[in-house]
Design brief:
With 87 residues, the protein is of the alpha+beta class. Helices cover 37% and strands 15% of the residues. It is built from 3 helices and 3 strands; from the N terminus they run αβαββα. Strands 1-3-2 form a 3-stranded antiparallel β-sheet, covered by helices on one side. Strand 2 (49-53) and strand 3 (56-60) form a beta hairpin. Helix 1 (2-9) packs parallel to helix 3 and helix 2 (33-42) crosses helix 3. It starts with a helix and ends in a 7-residue tail after the last helix.
């Protein structure tokens, strides 16, 4: 769910990844990964762990995350890729 929806938002997603961790590389015209992670950290709630690693957003959903948690993350990604003035 996260990988497919992130790809639809314009993130580059590897075709193969572990089920519990996915790396999202920012797409053309997006802010750097560190900036997007900073924006995600400002949003509440933050039910799914994200961090920046080597220029990639590392998303780490876990067994206890619900479909609503994942939707919240995706809403946060949508908001984070908007220009800062629109947050």
């Amino acid at each position: 769910l996260v990988a497919a929806q992130a790809a639809a938002l314009g993130f580059e997603v590897p075709p193969r990844h572990a089920p519990g961790i996915v790396g999202l590389r920012t797409g053309a015209g997006m802010p750097p990964a560190a900036e997007l992670v900073r924006r995600l950290a400002a949003l509440k709630p933050r039910p799914v762990l994200v961090s920046e690693r080597l220029g990639v957003i590392r998303v780490s959903p876990h067994l206890y995350n619900t479909p609503d948690d994942l939707r919240c993350l995706l809403d946060g990604l949508r908001a984070a890729v908007r220009p800062a003035s629109r947050l």
